[in-house]
Amino acid sequence: MTLIGFKLKPATEAIKISGVDRETVKLAEFGRICAGLIHEISTPLTAANLTLAQLGNRRGSVQIIQQVRRELKLLERYVIAARLQLKGESMPTTFSLTIVIHQIEMLLEAKAMAAEVRLLINTKGSIRIYGDRVKFAQIMTNLINNAIESYEESNKHPRFVRVNVKRKSEDSVTINVRDYGIGISYGGLKRIFEPLYSTKTGAHKGMGIGLSNVKSYVEEDFGGSIKVHSIPGMGTNFTLTIPIRHS
Fold first, then answer.
1. Secondary structure letter of residue 150 according to DSSP
2. Is 91:81 a contact under the CB 8 Å cutoff?
3. Is 170 exposed, middle or buried (0-12, 13-18, 19+ CB in 10 A)?
4. In this model, does residue 9 exceed pLDDT 60?
């Protein structure tokens, strides 16, 4: 009997796929999914903790309590999305990317304030696209979060992260996420989207999962493209082009 072109060996022998034990392949895939999940939930958890710290200094603030609830709700959506991915499912729908981006702005506001970074979000009108809302939120969370952290090893002031959204045509939308932080070296740019590669150092040293996922989601889930331009010491600009599709 064969399976996807490979002959199954007797049960007493180790099952090999391209020279690798099948159980090892399954374990590696499980580890990849878990690593991605840990990466995706770390940002909303950090934001929630920072907001709670503010709550400790401003007791009785209804606005801050509501903010924490929104952050934890987003975390819940990440977990639900991870479960569906394990089952090979997705949650495509028509949604307003403008609303999602402003929700991410609120999510990361506490972290930006702690880093003395000002978020400048420029969206014109409500643009609706078709796809997985949670994955789009993950794309924007990763890019804006990375832009905030780009100032960690920089003494620059003032500090800005600019997000510009505009209709490129009737059929697509362009999103730019721009920072003026430490930038990325030429060698780093060549590997920026590789799995398990990270340009971060220090407290925010990453696992190299975020941008790899971002590229995958943009291209495979939304049928779009992503480009990056960076100059060491002057900052980084990510440009996303996403088709406007409806169910």
1. T
2. yes
3. exposed
4. no
